[in-house]
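Study this pair:
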Amino acid sequence: QVQLVESGGGLVQAGGSLRLSCAASGRTFSSVVMGWFRRAPGKEREHVARIGRSGISTYYADSVKGRFTISRDNAKNTVYLQMNSLKPEDTAVYYCAADPTGAGSWPYWGQGTQVTVSS
């Protein structure tokens, strides 16, 4: 089992920045692939970013590439999503998720944190 708690969401103006954090517990954090997803009103869930167990391998959706950075601190059992140059279309509930197998099943999810970008 993995428990995930996100924090850091809020309201920001377009062009601004936010950093989301996701604290994990319940399993050896360094053995788990971590990811960030988002769901905007009326849209499908989007896989925003992913980071491998050691923090070397990363993936970004085209919509956020060059603006968002995912990182992890295995000593603190925490994964981060640094979001810069935010746009109104980034408005969504952001979720972190954990994938112990690395197979893309994502069985563990946090409760989500709201990010609202005003124009």
User: Anything to note?
Assistant: The chain has a mean pLDDT of 96. The radius of gyration is 13 Å.
